[in-house]
Design brief:
By secondary structure, this protein is α+β, with helices and mostly antiparallel strands. The chain has helices at about 10-15, 30-40, 60-70, 95-105, 125-145, and strands at about 20-25, 45, 55-60, 85, 110-115, 120-125.
């Protein structure tokens, strides 16, 4: 009988993206979205350039609902006017299942990860799907050898 070792990814720090995409609070929505497209990012973290504090998050959903849906001009609208201020954050040590339930319950697609006051990553719904796909693949493959 051959068994694969269990996947040892338990915390959100194990699966989060460490590539953090940030913009400053004076950026327009147009500048933010162009930068998001170039970076292939679904969300931008709005960070105070003086102290590095997280001010908010701006997502594709915010663009649709708060800018286009309200007929605002992206070229003149400042991103801080349409971002989600003071977003909920998780710690790298939080369990994946806890963060997944938070994302489902609150309908979050992207969630900043902070270690104390330091921004260390972002977890997205895609990160969660990749993790679930690994778990599924592992369990299906393992069951073939039981």
């Amino acid at each position: 009988m051959c068994r694969l070792p269990l996947i040892e990814l338990n915390t959100i720090g194990d699966i989060m993206s460490k590539d953090i995409f940030t913009v400053g609070p004076t950026s327009t929505v147009q500048q933010t979205v162009v930068a998001m497209v170039e970076a292939q990012a679904a969300a931008a973290l709005i960070v105070d350039p003086e102290n590095g504090n997280l001010l908010g998050v701006f997502t594709e959903r915010d663009l649709v609902r708060r800018v286009i849906g309200k007929d605002l001009d992206p070229k003149t609208t400042i991103v801080t006017d349409v971002m989600t201020p003071d977003p909920v954050c998780c710690k790298p040590s939080d369990e994946i299942k806890t963060v997944a339930m938070l994302m489902v319950d609150r309908k979050f697609r992207n969630l900043p990860i902070k270690d104390g006051k330091t921004l260390v990553g972002m977890v997205s719904i895609l990160d969660m799907l990749k993790y679930l796909a690994e778990i599924y693949q592992h369990s299906v493959f393992s069951s073939q050898f039981i």
